[in-house]
Amino acid sequence: MDKIVASAAEAVADIPAGATLSVGGFGLCGVPIALIDALLEQGADNLTTISNNCGVDDQALGILLYAGRITKTISSFVGGNKELARLYLTGELEVELTPQGSLAERLRAGGTGIPAFYTPTGVGTLVAEGGIPVRYDADGNVVATSQPKEVRVFDGRQYVLETALTADFGLVRAAVGDRHGNLVFHESARNFNPLAGMAARITIAEVEELVEPGEILPESVHLPGVFVDRVVVVGTEGKKIEKRTTRPRSEGAPA
What we know:
Elements (H helix, E strand, L loop, with lengths): L7 H4 L8 E4 L9 H10 L4 E4 L11 H5 L3 E6 L6 H8 L4 E4 L2 H13 L3 E4 L6 H4 L3 E4 L5 E4 L5 E4 L2 E7 L3 E12 L4 E2 L8 H6 L1 E12 L18 E4 L22
Parallel strand pairs: 1-2, 1-10, 2-3, 3-4, 10-12, 12-13
Antiparallel strand pairs: 5-9, 6-7, 8-9, 10-11
């Protein structure tokens, strides 16, 4: 039951080329930075990533993009990464766009064994009708587009069929974890982390603080250890802020 591994490098050592990864985080919040850095050093390439966004320029998953390790991403937001746009528009990266809520539910469905579900999100748009560019060639021509999806009517309303997402490996970051793999995420870092962990065949968690089994109240567990295979303690160093916004202090305010 003890799922602790000694280092991030050991935790990702068996991720092979061509693997599909579900990765937690939103922007730079709750991103498994240590595991991504270790994977860069490990060298696996031809990766498919499932994540809300594929890094922020040369940070988080962006470092794998800059290194040419990712060949396909399934994401809901790709506007914060210039390298992703370049790779996409020059035919070096395949991009499957999916609405943010649908992406979350596709991961959750994958984790719970539900093969597909109907949602009103995307009805009447290219999400349902197909035609979103998935891949370009080197000259900027569209060579592959998304396919039409099944639409059905329930109680007089249209719904589009979305399929579940699963991954070979899941990479997540938690504030607290125990040796059995039970995880707690801090506030908004909860974002896609539990879902990414649920959807993977092998889930690796980096945790800031390790506690003993029983110290986390059952009702406080956000991702049960049954979904987690490896835990590596990374501390709080290396956490990044995507955009720092400040305002001038009022006169006399404490420094």
